[in-house]
Amino acid sequence: MELKNMDKIVNVCKARGFVFPGSEIYGGFANTWDFGPVGVELKNNIKRAWWKRFVQEDANTYGVDAAILMNPTVWKASGHVDSFGDPKMDCKNCKTRHRADTLIENHSKGTVSAEAMTNEEMEKYIEEHDVRCPVCGKRDFTPIRKFNPMFTTSRGTLEAEADTVYLRPETCQGEYVNFLNVQRTARAKVPFAIAQIGKSFRNEITPGNFLFRTIEFEQMELQKFCKAEDSMNFYEDYKVRAKQFVEDLGLKDEHLRFHDHDKLAHYAKAACDIQYLFPIGWQELNGIHHRGTWDLSRHQEFSGKSMLYLDPVTNEKFLPTVIEYSIGADRLTLALLCEAYDEETLEGGDTRVVMHLHSAIAPYKVAVLPLQKNLSDKAKEVFAILSKQFMCDYDEAGSIGKRYRREDEIGTPFCVTIDFDTLEDDTVTIRDRDTMQQIRLKISELCPYIQSKISF
Ligand code: GAP
After folding, report:
1. Domain-ending residue, one of 296, 318, 337
2. In this predicted model, what pLDDT tens digit does every residue of 405-415 receive, in sequence order?
3. Fewer CB near the last or first residue (10 Å), C or N of the chain?
4. pLDDT (average), residues 384-390
């Protein structure tokens, strides 16, 4: 299967206002990216589609928006302070820092998973397979050491009194700590889920590949609280729903696969990723994790507050089992951009770059283009009507052909052209991005027509 070219995708993203390098005028800040006018619409639409599918359309799922800065004990309870750590190796020659598991996975082009390997096994693999530093080409690494990827900051007005606090490395802890608040106020009965979309921060050892692995990113996570005996059914159910969701947004089945984890946490019954065939090979897109009662029991232990759920039917008190579904909004945005990017050869031999984004997530649903500048008054009237319902672009600069190309590159599914007939009979042409076919419609028919094509 031919892989898309990441450089071309990055270039279109920068040139067309999807994504800019973070702090660019200061020379950038590695592995941070700013979403531009087109990119912010795309990412917001993706987040809305996720929320609609998993919260709005599911009567038993409730949303929260928890604080990023949490009581530091949360991260002791979660294991992030003392137990978790990435396997770090430094290249002695060029001093670059690497994750040993990533070195192995990249060297094997995703065919070997280092997940279940011990540090010794990873070191042995690197030696036996002559895995070299991707920066300087030497194989001269330090032994593997544990590296905590949490960013810290401090709280308090006087530095001497400052307490260390952490930028959350995942959003799900805000869902666990609010389990009983949500259950009580929503009068929710197990099984139910709590969902959240928000920023997470990780001091990644090997960030990179554009939006794939960054140090600041958004996660869309939900935790299903259920009875232990129902948990594997929910686990399987979320695997299916998670895959269906990304397929419905446009990722092709042949570019997706399930990857069951080889190594499970001691409390977990099952864990699985959905992988996508990115330009860098097969990589994790999202995770579905069976977390047992681990998280609630740890918060119960560390906070001293009971997290028990009282079943109103049986009067039984128990800690629900948790099934987690977690997907990065930025990583999904990258996957959808990769899938949508296309270069097509047109009849006259020209090529056009087109983003075949699902119309529900396309940044602009429609562009209004007056054929000539002296039609701009009428075009602005049409823009005023359409923009009440949809994100619309307006463009009167350059030839109509060039304007179509610009809209194709940012994935606008429809272009409405105002010509001299519009002044006579209130009709316009509407051009379809994918087929490039045009039909003529009355201005009054435009909104229902576009609406009928963009539902998700
Ligand atoms: N609460 C579970 C959790 O955070 P994870 O596998 O570490 O699990 C879940 O992360 C998802 O978040 C990943 O599948 C990926 O989509 C996204 N993600 C994780 N780290 C990321 C990073 N550094 N940059 C972009 N997205 C990331």
Report:
1. 337
2. 999 999 999 99
3. N
4. 98
Number of independent structural domains in the chain: 2
pLDDT of residue 300: 98
Q: Is 106 domain-assigned?
A: no
- Dist. CA 299–CA 180, nearest whole Å: 12
| CA-172 nearest atom, ligand 1 | 1
Do 283 and 212 fall within a single domain? Answer: yes
Question: Is 386 within a domain?
Answer: yes
Residues listed for the chain: 456
Q: Residue 73 falls within a domain, yes or no?
A: no
How far is C-alpha 308 from the geometric centre of its chain's CA atoms? 32
pLDDT of residue 25: 98
373 and 309 co-located in one domain: no
Distance separating alpha carbons of residues 52 and 39, to the nearest angstrom: 20
- Give, for ligand 1, the residue of 326, 327, 336, 338 to mutate: max count of ligand atoms closer than 8 Å to Cβ: 326
Cα 309 to chain centroid distance, Å, stands at 32
Q: Is the same domain home to 328 and 399?
A: no
Q: Over range 348-375, report the average pLDDT.
A: 96
Q: Does residue 223 share a domain with residue 332? A: yes
Whether residues 205 and 303 share a domain: the answer is yes
What is the H or E stretch that residue 267 is in?
Answer: none
CA of 276 to the centre of ligand 1 (A): 14
Nearest CA to ligand 1 atom 20: 213
Cβ atoms of 172 and 291 closer than 8 Å: no
pLDDT tens track for 125-179? 999 999 999 999 999 999 998 889 999 999 887 766 678 999 999 999 999 999 9
Of 168, 170, 190, 179, nearest to 64 (Cα)?
179
Which residues lie with the beta carbon below 6 Å from any ligand 1 atom? 170, 172, 202, 204, 213-214, 217, 219, 221, 284-287, 324, 326-328, 330-331
Residues 381 and 330 in one domain: no
Distance 217 CA to ligand 1 centre (A): 8
The predicted pLDDT at position 160 comes to 65
| Residue ranges making up the domain that contains 286 | 6-67+189-337
CA of 219 to the centre of ligand 1 (A): 7
- Rounded to whole angstroms, the Cα distance separating 246 from 117 reads 30
What atom of ligand 1 comes closest to residue 287's alpha carbon?
A: 14
Tokens standing for 137?
């080409």
**Average pLDDT value for the chain:** 95
Span from the CA of 4 to the centroid of ligand 1 (angstroms): 23
252 and 383 share one domain? no
Alpha carbon of 287 to ligand 1 centroid (Å)? 8
Q: Summarize pLDDT for 82-116 with one digit per residue, the tens.
A: 877 788 999 999 989 899 998 998 898 878 888 78
- The pLDDT of 265-282, averaged and rounded, is 93
- The span from the CA of 16 to the CA of 406, in Å, is 8
Does residue 299 share a domain with residue 197? yes
Ligand 1 atom closest to residue 286's alpha carbon, by position in its atom list: 14
**Domain for residue 201, yes or no?**
yes
